[in-house]
Write a structure and sequence with these properties.
The complex is a heterotrimer. Chain A is α+β, with helices and mostly antiparallel strands. Helix content of chain A is 43%, strand content 20%. The longest helix of chain A is centred in the C-terminal third of the chain and has 36 residues. Chain A is globular. By secondary structure, chain B is an alpha/beta fold. Chain B has 2 domains: 221 residues, P-loop containing nucleotide triphosphate hydrolases (Rossmann fold, 3-Layer(aba) Sandwich); 93 residues, 2-Layer Sandwich (Alpha-Beta Plaits). Chain B has a 6-stranded mixed sheet, sandwiched between helices. Chain B has a 4-stranded antiparallel sheet with strand order 2-1-4-5, with helices on one face. A 4-stranded antiparallel sheet of chain B has the order 12-13-11-14, with helices on one face. Chain B is elongated, with a radius of gyration of 25 Å. Chain C contains 12 helices and 1 strand. The longest helix of chain C has 29 residues. The chains are: A alpha+beta, B alpha/beta, C mainly alpha. The interface between A and C is large, with 55 and 61 residues. Strand 1 of chain A pairs antiparallel with strand 1 of chain C.
Chain lengths: 824, 321, 243
């Protein structure tokens, strides 16, 4: 009961006043915070400004007026998702990171970019995940199955975006790595611009391609619709129905036959569209591909038409066979339609895309299947007819050859194609296609013949980047031994070092680049190799894996930070490197720019091979040597190169072997491409860009030639003991490749990143190089002995508490002393 | 202030949820005086002091120190006060010197002046030996000195001491009282106590609070005069031979001016006598002497009964009614 | 302002005169250290991950702070209330806000000391590799801000009671709630949590610091929470007037 005569004042503020004040404070705080959300004031303290859009990204966003980004983000993302290889990937905060990043682009564009979030269950469009899949945003699933109705299902999630710019379109299919968001998005933006510009020039071919595709699509839809038979109903009624004799195939045949005029009309458009596509033909790989698959599709349609109208050869009186053929043809049409769709997608995606060529045919890393068949089919048929043993070996060798092809194709797909690089196989015995805009010579282990060198020479002089990775030595560490004469079993103890047959040294010398053949070792800055060992224990054999610091895997520590390739590099492990220098003449020549992109550490040393291979012995060598580093492991040279073929007759193109392979018919007349090549004139000098890396970066080429050493079709005709030994050697060669890749596979991440940088740089997406190294600014720990890391961990765990305890004790002592001495 | 009033308290009301602690307390404290706030436990002394020190806010009423209203500018008022709460709460883990240093800094002193003041108050309260001691290790009496020292540190206009001697042993009580008397020579002091003797010893003036109300305000003598309308006497009588204590009581009751006689107890040794308490309307001591002589009784004791607080309250509140 | 600093200094000294400061700081060091170097729940340990980063430290440290800081703030007002020293304290010529700020500042002093000692981790990482020092600085600034907010919340609960244990438990609940439970609650309560609600969570607000990004919005958020807690504490102190 407060006295009404004296209103509260000053400290006498009552309960109600206090409540009001506290609420008001909360209110002010909320309002101020809400107002601030509109203000984007961020301070990025990271050294590389990892979390700030780089200038390249900002200008990319600003260059795309009226770009529309549609983001597909599932509502409730799982905590983790399984990763290939067993691990789990945490998705914490990923949604916010993605939204933030997209919104940063919108902000950076100054209103030019519009961002739309796909909404759930907007009428007629389905769930976000369904919308996403329709937009070709990849769906992924969590590790926990969820009950959907009565079924256990892995829930599907989407996290991606589509980008529409005028007439062109790109998809960010799976956005699960926040570190790479900027890289991926900017890549898409740059790509959109290129694509749009190139598409403007290629309007006609693209329109013609589209017409073909649309015609086929219409045809396919019609046939599939008409040919759809509801089987289950029919079967259920079979017992009662008088027409129980009509089987589904017959029904389909009848339905299609009834609509045959319709089909003929609709599908007839394909031929019209194809013949009208004059601008498409012979212009590009993709146009030709589309035309080819359209052609195939058309021939199936034609055949179908013949069966339906009863004019097919030999089918007239055999209705049973006709129905079966029709069923087969309709399903084939659907298959080929997918092919057409893919070809069309490739075509629409191709404008402005730069093709990187990989030189193949010299046992180098060549991520494609071989262009020549292993053994022509007819020969294979003939062989081994008189010897079952040979037949078996033949089959096994064919199998090895197949897995090599598959492995290479898969590597190419995973490492490059899926990451948006357009790569092309370049065979050295043919002129290099003008579509190739950069050439990679990846660690050839056989000499490049003159004609190939000539092609390379002219390619370089045309101003297109040539990147050479060198592998001068083959290091077999605890490999499978090739069989010896004693017929010993497979052992994992073969260690040796042998020179490859590469002539890169000679090739490069002509351009002033001195590729050394000595290996570069390091005693301090090294990475490990993982070595498999067979261990006998209790009569059983176990495979164990052990890490050894390896002097032949020096960690490069010096980088030229002015070059886009090495701008952001801090360390890079380089497996089995030699080194590379500019010749003194080149060094002196002011017209050339020479950049030591990557250098080994001060503690490295150059040693003539062969060296002991086993880690302890090798370490001994490295420790004993006086350091001579740093040595250059990657060298970039730009300048007016002179042709090595100046004043000589250009080498002759080797004759194509006649293979009689029905799958690869020889070209009957020269294509436009050939005509273009014929018009090329010889250059004696030209400004070029050459990058030489003195290592294969742990990616050893897997090639038929290197594995199936000494394979000759002729030898297969007759059995000999050597053939069996050869076969065993091939087998261990193949396995050794896997072993060697495995030994340095843990370094692959860093090295692949560098290779990707090289490819972006080569296709003049230098901005991307920078953004990539920013996104995954990896900061590896230096190599430490196990004891050292243990001590460091223990030390830093104990240091804090010890420090605290010491400070506390000192404080107590000081206080006691001081208190005793206190006097007035 | 012109009239020398340092603290002015007017109509102080403190209302808690269920009870009224103060029901309109008013008094003044003049410069240089030691004012005793007297009252039994729960009378409202502490509440009054807490409001004076601005620890609590009054429900209504005004407190002004040196003309500054404590509701308007509590910080300024606090600066003029030194306060020693009941039971002397101190940071027991601090060293005496550090504690005074801390309080002094909080009051805005620093450097040499702060050191000088600390030295002064430590000498004043006699803690020279203990500056380096942890407060928790000191005896209660010395803790009280620390409390006084912190209250004195800034040489406050008014020193407010809430039950400064409670919980101390007799020797400590004497020491602390002497100390307060010393302080009172140069300061205005408000001191609360439930011990009348203590107040009489130390204070110049007393305000008596009972059940949240001021029941008396004046010097000790004034107060005693006020309550002197009833005289209480202690009488020891050895009745003459053959007479019993009851006879004595009956005889006394007939005397003029005596309103009541209580036999408190009869003693047998060394001199058998009856102890009596007498209430009279005036001082009847001469009549009693004469009566004893006349009737042949021997007086072994005759004195005025000391005024106890309860008695004063009773009489005062009776008066008030 | 001088009084605030004086009070802060005394509180800091008092904190380090009692064993609780050493215990709290040691627990903080050991827990964050173990989590940092050994990882938890299957995450790779520091040397296994082979990455010179302090991100994991910044993921675990707020957890540890949410637990140990209420233990440091619990005594600030509860003890004074219990021993009666509060009466002397509030009758010093200092306003209540200054008292609250002084106490908070003293506790922040402890936080700074505790964080300084954890610098052995970045030093160890710098010995093993080349961490991004900018990101480390951002993370530490974040820890300072989130720690200050935790301290302010703990201080608030300390004004509510004279029982230190009660103050600690309430503070702990409040801190853990703000750090993580908002996330969980929001997830339970909403199918698609509104962004504004997500922003209430300390964790959401702290993420950017851990990355090395100082976003003024996040800074403002933690300062706002601290400010609201300070105002709340002040009025809680003044509640003696009307109780």
């Amino acid at each position: 009961m407060a006295d009404p005569k004296t209103p509260s004042k000053g400290t006498r503020s009552g309960k109600a006043d206090a409540l009001v004040m506290v609420l008001a404070t909360v209110g002010v705080a909320v309002v101020v915070n809400a107002l601030m959300t509109a203000i984007n004031l961020r301070l990025d303290l990271t050294e590389q400004k990892v979390h700030t859009l780089s200038d390249a990204s900002i200008s990319a966003a600003q260059s795309l007026d009226s770009l529309v980004i549609t983001a597909y983000i599932s509502k409730k993302l799982p905590e983790t998702i399984p990763m290939p290889g067993g691990g789990k990937m945490a998705l914490k905060g990923i949604e916010r990171a993605f939204r933030d990043k997209l919104e940063e682009y919108v902000t950076a564009s100054g209103g030019k970019v519009r961002l739309v979030y796909a909404e759930d269950n907007s009428p007629g469009v389905g769930t976000i995940e369904e919308q996403a899949e329709a937009a070709k945003v990849e769906a992924f699933s969590s590790s926990e199955a969820q009950l959907a109705g009565s079924e256990l299902k892995f829930a599907r999630y989407a996290m991606g975006a589509t980008f529409h710019y005028k007439t062109v379109h790109e998809v960010f299919a799976k956005a699960l790595q926040p570190g790479f968001y900027e890289f991926e998005i900017t890549k898409i933006l740059l790509r959109l611009r290129e694509k749009y510009e190139a598409a403007q020039i290629q309007k006609e071919p693209l329109a013609q391609g589209k017409a073909i595709f649309e015609a086929i699509k219409a045809c396919n839809e019609l046939v599939q619709k008409k040919g759809k038979v509801e089987e289950s109903k029919d079967e259920g009624a079979a017992g009662l129905s008088l027409k129980g004799t009509t089987d589904p195939g017959q029904k389909r045949f009848d339905a299609l036959a009834a609509a045959k005029d319709d089909i003929a009309k609709t599908c007839g458009d394909i031929a019209k569209a194809a013949s009208a596509a004059t601008k498409l033909k012979g212009k590009s790989q993709f146009g030709d591909q589309l035309l080819q698959s359209a052609e195939q599709y058309k021939s199936i349609v034609d055949e179908l038409g013949q069966f339906l109208s009863g004019t097919a050869e030999g089918a007239k009186d055999k209705p049973k066979q006709a129905t079966m053929a029709v069923a087969q043809l309709t399903s084939m049409m659907d298959e080929f339609y997918k092919e057409v769709d893919r070809a069309h997608t490739n075509l629409t995606d191709s404008p402005g895309r730069k093709v990187i060529g990989f030189l193949c045919g010299h046992d180098e890393f060549c991520p494609f299947a071989e262009s020549e068949p292993f053994v022509p089919e007819q020969m294979a048929m003939m062989m081994g007819q008189n010897n079952p043993m040979m037949k078996q070996i033949m089959q096994a060798a064919t199998q090895i050859s197949q897995s090599i092809d598959e492995t290479n194709a898969r590597i190419g797909d995973n490492l490059f194609t899926k990451r948006g690089y357009m790569i092309r196989r370049v065979d050295g015995d043919e002129p290099i296609s003008s579509e190739v805009s950069a050439l990679i010579v990846y660690a050839p282990r056989k000499a490049l013949p003159d004609y190939t060198r000539y092609q390379l020479d002219q390619f370089l002089l045309a101003g297109k980047p040539v990147i050479a990775f060198a592998q001068e030595w083959e290091v077999a560490l605890m490999n499978m031994a090739a069989p010896d004469d004693l017929g010993n079993d497979v052992r994992l103890d073969y260690s040796a070092m042998s020179a490859t047959g590469s002539n890169l040294q000679e090739v490069l010398k002509g351009y002033g680049v001195d590729l050394k053949r000595e290996l570069t070792l390091d005693s301090k800055h090294v990475e490990t190799v993982k070595v498999m060992k067979l261990v006998q224990r209790g009569g059983l054999q176990f495979q164990t894996q052990q890490d050894f610091p390896y002097a032949l895997v020096p960690v490069a520590t010096k980088f030229d930070h002015t070059h886009p390739l090495s701008k952001a590099l801090e360390t890079l492990p380089v497996p089995y490197p030699t080194s590379v220098e500019a010749t003194p003449e080149l060094e002196k020549n002011k017209e050339f720019e020479v950049v030591r992109v990557i250098q080994s550490s001060e503690s490295s040393v150059r040693k003539a091979a062969p060296l002991p291979v086993l880690p302890p012995a090798l370490k001994e060598v490295a420790l004993k040597a006086t350091p001579t580093g740093p040595h250059t492991l990657a060298l970039f040279v730009r300048g007016p190169f002179k042709s090595q073929f100046a004043g000589k007759d250009p080498p002759k193109r080797p004759e194509k072997k006649q293979t009689n392979d029905p799958m690869h018919p020889p070209r009957d007349k020269p294509s436009e491409h050939d005509q273009e090549i014929a018009k090329r004139t010889f250059k004696t000098q030209g400004a070029g860009k050459l990058l030489v890396v003195a290592s294969n970066l742990g990616i050893e080429g897997l090639s038929r030639g290197a594995v199936l050493k000494g394979f000759e079709v002729g030898k297969m005709a007759q059995f000999s003991a050597d053939t069996l030994k050869d076969y065993q050697t091939w087998n261990s060669n193949f396995q050794n490749w896997q072993i060697r890749i495995g030994q340095v596979s843990h370094l692959l991440g860093d090295n692949l990143q560098f290779i990707a940088n090289v490819m972006d740089w080569a296709t003049s997406h230098e901005a991307l190089v920078e953004i990539r190294s920013k996104g995954d600014m990896r900061r590896p720990l230096r190599q430490m002995e196990p004891d050292e890391s243990k001590n460091l961990r223990l030390g830093s765990l104990l240091a804090g508490p010890l420090l605290l305890g010491l400070a506390g004790a000192l404080r107590m002592m000081w206080r006691r002393k001081r208190n005793e001495s206190l006097k007035i | 202030m012109a009239d020398g009033t340092v603290v002015r308290v007017r109509n102080l009301v403190k209302q808690y949820a269920t009870k009224t602690a103060l029901g309109g307390v008013s008094f003044d404290v003049h410069a240089g005086e030691i004012m005793g706030l007297l009252g039994p436990n729960g009378a409202g002394k502490s509440t009054t002091m807490k409001i004076l020190t601005t620890y609590l806010a009054a429900t209504s009423g005004d407190v002004a120190v040196d003309g500054v209203d404590s509701a308007d500018d509590p910080v300024k008022v606090r600066a003029m006060l030194g306060y020693l709460p009941e039971s002397t709460p101190l940071y027991t883990d601090m060293v005496v010197y550090d504690y005074l240093d801390y309080v002094g800094s909080m009051r805005g002193f620093k450097g040499a002046e702060l050191r000088k003041r600390i030295g002064d108050v430590i000498r004043m309260v006699g803690l020279q030996e203990y500056v380096g001691f942890q407060i928790g290790t000191l005896s209660k009496g010395y803790r009280q000195r620390v409390g006084l020292a912190q209250a004195m540190l800034h040489n406050p206009k008014v020193l407010i001491l809430d039950e400064p001697t409670s919980g101390l042993d007799p020797n400590q009580i004497v020491e602390i009282r002497n100390l307060i008397r010393e302080l009172g020579k140069s300061h205005t002091v408000i001191l609360s106590s439930h011990n009348l003797a203590e107040v009489r010893q130390i204070c110049d003036r007393v305000v008596i609070i009972h059940r949240g109300k001021v029941v008396a305000d004046g010097t000790i003598d004034e107060l005693e005069g006020k309550v002197a309308s009833t005289h209480r006497l202690i009488l020891g009588v050895q009745p003459k031979a053959g007479a019993a204590a009851a006879d004595v009581v009956a005889a006394l009751k007939t005397l003029d001016g005596i309103s009541a006689v209580h036999l408190t107890h009869e003693a047998k040794t060394p001199v058998p006598h009856a102890n009596l308490e007498i209430e009279a309307s005036r001082d009847v001591r001469p009549e009693l002497f004469q009566w004893a002589q006349r009737d042949g009784h021997s007086l072994v004791e005759l004195r005025r009964k000391a005024m106890d607080l309860e008695g004063i309250f009773q009489s005062l509140t009776q008066d008030a009614n | 302002m001088n009084a605030v600093l004086t009070l802060a200094r005394r509180e800091l000294a008092a904190t380090f005169d009692s064993p609780i400061a050493y215990i709290a700081a040691t627990v903080f060091l050991v827990v964050t250290g173990l989590l940092f170097f050994f990882g938890h729940d299957g995450s790779a340990d520091f040397f296994g991950a082979r990455e010179a980063t302090l991100r994991p430290l910044f993921e675990y440290a707020p957890w540890a702070l949410a637990v140990i800081l209420p233990a440091v703030t619990m005594r600030l007002f509860a003890e004074e209330k219990k021993s009666g020293t509060l009466e002397l304290l509030v009758t010093l010529p200092v306003s209540d806000v200054q008292l609250v700020l002084g106490k908070l500042l003293g506790a922040v002093g402890f936080l700074v000391v505790a964080l300084l000692v954890t610098l052995v981790f970045p030093i160890a990482v710098a010995m093993a590799g080349n961490p991004d020092l900018g990101a480390v600085a951002g993370g530490y600034l974040g820890l300072l801000l989130i720690g200050t907010a935790f301290l302010a919340l703990g201080l608030l609960t300390s004004t509510w009671t004279h029982n230190q244990i009660v103050a600690f438990i309430l503070g702990l609940l409040l801190c853990v709630f703000f750090w993580t439970a908002t996330d969980a609650l929001i997830k339970v309560a909403f199918d698609k949590p509104p962004l504004t609600l997500q922003l209430l969570s300390f964790r959401t607000q702290f993420d950017d610091f851990a990355k090395g990004v100082v976003d003024m919005r996040n800074v403002l958020y933690f300062l706002s929470v601290s400010a609201v807690a300070v105002v709340g504490s002040t009025y809680s102190l003044q509640s003696r007037h009307w109780k």
